[in-house]
Write a structure and sequence with these properties.
single chain; 8-stranded antiparallel sheet; disordered C terminus; 8-stranded mixed sheet
Length: about 775
């Protein structure tokens, strides 16, 4: 295998089967991470540094400062210097001469602290590191203890294991920063949900509730601090070894398996043997061996050194099971991993303003989760103060700022999921979830749905029926685009929401003017930069529907089809829905099949999606895929018709919990939106005081406040409220909605010099 540079050579480490005196059907493998250029932390250094460069957090040529007494220092030195960054390493007197020589040979500046702080050597190193950061403007600190890119780096290791073995039953690894074992386990469990994970710690480490013994001799595992990256929920069993046991096992590894490893590899080897002895026939076990033994030649592998320092310690042949709170002094184990019952937080990256967003915060609380809203403007959410939700104010369109906030505020094991109920933040939410290794769709899949130009390309490449289209970024291309798709055509932004700026154009001149309007929109309603791309699309005639799908571990599943009523043009605004749609079985099957193929084409497979479809004479055509639950209160219609809560299921999916959703309906539910019949100012509402007492009427809501400027709808933001009703048939639902809407009066003052007050009864167009 030939690599373009030394950084690309990181990873691709061998997997070897170990010889064990156990049932021959029990297979035990060692992943030789010690075969990286320096050691396992090469993976972390590469991923952390490349991500920092991608996000602009680390500028070309800027210094990198890291705290490490071992392999992380070498990894940062390797990657940092190879990419042209000055590297400063803060370490302590425990650093071995071999590592020190390697660091200096690579051109690093090494800073050795001379005494422990109250938090041991790690605490002293961090104090010195922050002094350096203050004196080095623009310097980057990888923060291996709390940066989620540390565990994220081990997705590549997990991928290599799955590529070599396809499946296995137990993973054994050492725990230091929490990165390697927790990151590998989290990634592996997506493919191997029943995987058992065994953590290896050392006596005198605080990671799993033991008292700190700063004078312990083992390096590369254990800690005097609680790293934010440690996620004890990922670990099913913990072992502790004292120095004598760990160093003896390291020498056993060399003698018995011909693997010259460091004490971390030796500790994992010792635990592997115990796990293998207890394993059921046919079990496959993998251990991660992080480090080579060259830097331990004068310590662990030196008889005189070992005899002088370890003679007072007892060495157990087998682990002893200990109870919570009991102190381990020699090889011990427990299946009762401490720290796994802490509160779990669900992060909401902004929300929609239709009411569903704030409602979701309360749903999360009822699920036993702690909701946290990340927002740049809390005042936009009516009712937020009543939710008992933690609110973090931040720049929510800035991914590095979001990552920095989350990294500084939460320990990894506290975070259960990331979600949003707003179209505009679905990609950023997917980026955050992916960074943290939390459940969700791939960011690229979500981005392909949000940017309709990317969606069109993906569907075209997969041969899925959709409108003819041209993506236009230069107004001069408009006439040619119209020539390709024909007239009339639809012109719309590639990445807006709520039917905003979607226009049916009858002439080339109208299309040119609207393309210029779209390309001139630099910011969306949330103040985020737009894609500056207009889609010129074929106008498809036919009834409009949406297909509600939910992605689960078994695949995407259709929950039902919603019948939609949309304004005829030139604007396209949803005026009403009925769920479920009454469709012939063959048409419904064809529509669902088209949607499932479209979702597969973009890679959406987790949680709710809402796909809009036109039923044309040639069959169903995909208009757009929304990477979220349906808006327009469709989840409420679904709940009323099936008894299942789609919002709760979406939040459960966000935290990796089972969902219980029904595709069986007990009736029908519909919604009609309230819209202004003319431009003006809403003075208030009148009439219909007894509306909610009408048969089947479930909700009557006015969302617009008096004083709001109103107009006949041009986008979803022009809707002023809604009425929801249920019934045993579609016809009954439509009849009940109209009976309710007929009693709603919107008091609109017209915007004319001679305006007069007028109480206008809404006359809804026929719902279907």
């Amino acid at each position: 295998m030939i690599f373009q540079n030394v950084v690309d050579a990181i990873g691709h480490t061998p997997l070897v089967r170990l010889r064990m005196d156990v049932d021959p059907s029990v297979q035990v493998y060692a992943k030789l991470e010690l075969q990286n250029l320096f050691a396992m932390k090469d993976r972390v250094a590469r991923h952390v540094i490349l991500e920092a460069r991608r996000l602009g957090v680390l500028r070309p040529g800027a210094p990198i400062v890291e705290s490490s007494s071992g392999t992380m220092a070498l990894g940062v030195a390797l990657v940092g210097t190879a990419l042209g960054h000055p590297v400063h390493v803060v370490t302590d007197p425990r650093i071995d001469p071999v590592t020190l020589a390697k660091l200096r040979a690579l051109g690093c500046q090494v800073h050795v602290v001379d005494r422990m702080s109250s938090q041991g050597w790690q605490g002293a190193r961090l104090e010195r590191l922050h002094e350096l950061l203050d004196g080095l403007p623009g310097a980057f600190f990888p923060e291996q203890y709390r940066n989620p890119d540390n565990p994220g780096a081990y997705r590549s290791l997990a991928g290599e294991l799955l590529g070599d073995l396809t499946s296995f039953d137990v993973l054994v690894g050492a725990v230091g920063t929490g990165g390697s074992l927790c990151g590998s386990a989290r990634a592996l469990r997506r493919a191997l949900p029943e995987l058992r994970v065994v953590g290896v710690d050392c006596v005198g480490s605080v990671l799993f509730g033991q008292p700190d013994v700063p004078t312990r001799l083992q390096g590369g595992l254990g800690n005097s601090l609680q790293p934010a990256n440690l996620d004890r929920r990922q670990i099913d069993e913990v072992h502790w070894l004292n120095d004598r046991e760990a160093f003896g096992a390291t020498r056993d590894l060399a003698r018995e398996q011909q693997i010259f490893g460091g004490n971390t590899s030796g500790s994992v080897y010792q635990v592997l043997k115990d796990v293998a002895r207890r394993a059921e026939p046919g079990t496959r076990i993998v251990g991660i061996f992080p480090d080579r033994g060259d830097r331990y030649a004068q310590t662990v592998y030196d008889d005189e050194w070992a005899a002088d320092r370890l003679h007072e310690l007892d060495a157990a042949e087998r682990p002893r099971s200990i109870d919570p709170g009991e102190v381990a002094v020699s090889w011990s184990r427990t299946d009762d991993v401490p720290g796994t019952n802490d509160e779990r937080y669900l992060l909401f990256l902004e929300a929609n303003t239709s009411g569903t967003g704030v409602l979701a915060l309360g749903v999360a609380r009822r699920m036993g989760l702690r909701p946290v809203l990340l927002t740049d403007r809390p005042d936009r959410y009516r009712g937020l103060a009543d939710t008992d939700c933690e609110v973090l104010v931040c720049e929510t369109h800035d991914l590095p700022a979001l990552r920095s906030l989350v990294q500084g505020r939460f320990r990894r094991e506290q975070l259960a999921g990331v979600t949003t109920t707003s179209d505009f933040y679905t990609v950023l939410a997917a980026e955050l979830a992916d960074w943290l290794g939390l459940p969700g769709n791939p960011p690229a899949a979500v981005a392909a749905c949000r940017n309709k130009a990317l969606l069109r390309e993906a569907l075209r490449d997969s041969g899925i029926r959709q409108p003819r289209f041209v993506a236009v970024t230069d107004p001069a291309r408009t006439a040619a685009a119209v020539g390709e798709v024909g007239l009339p055509c639809v012109v719309k932004p590639a990445d807006d929401s709520g039917s905003n700026a979607v226009l049916l154009c009858a002439t080339v001149e109208e299309a040119k003017a609207h393309v210029e309007t779209v390309l001139g929109m630099r910011l969306n309603v949330r103040g985020m930069p737009t894609a500056r791309c207009a889609l010129v699309e074929e106008y498809l005639r036919g009834a409009e529907f949406s297909v509600e799908v939910f992605g689960e571990s078994t695949g995407n599943r259709c929950l039902g089809i919603t019948e939609k009523r949309v304004t005829a043009g030139p604007y396209f605004v949803e005026l009403g829905h009925v769920f479920p749609a009454d469709l012939p079985a063959d048409q419904a099957t064809e529509m669902v099949d088209a949607v499932l193929r479209a979702l597969a084409a973009v890679g959406m497979a987790h949680g709710a999606t809402h796909t809009e479809v036109r039923l044309t004479p040639s069959g169903p055509a995909i208009i757009e895929i929304n990477p979220r639950p349906a808006g327009g209160m469709i989840p409420e219609l679904y709940r009323l018709a099936t008894g299942s809560n789609l919002l709760a299921a979406q939040l459960a999916a966000a935290v990796g919990e089972p969902t219980r959703l029904s595709s069986t309906t007990a009736g029908y539910a519909g919604i009609e939106f309230l819209v202004a019949p003319r431009p003006g100012t809403l003075r208030g509402t009148a009439g219909g005081a007894e509306i909610e007492r009408l048969d089947g009427v479930e909700q009557v809501t006015v969302t617009a406040s008096p004083g709001t400027s109103v107009r006949p709808p041009r986008n979803g933001y022009d809707r002023l409220g809604y009425v929801i009703a249920t019934g045993s048939s579609r016809a009954e639902v439509v009849r009940r909605i109209h009976a309710a809407v007929d009693q709603v009066q919107l008091l609109v003052d017209e915007d004319r010099p001679d305006a007069f007050s007028d109480a206008t009864s809404l006359a809804p167009a026929p719902a279907h």
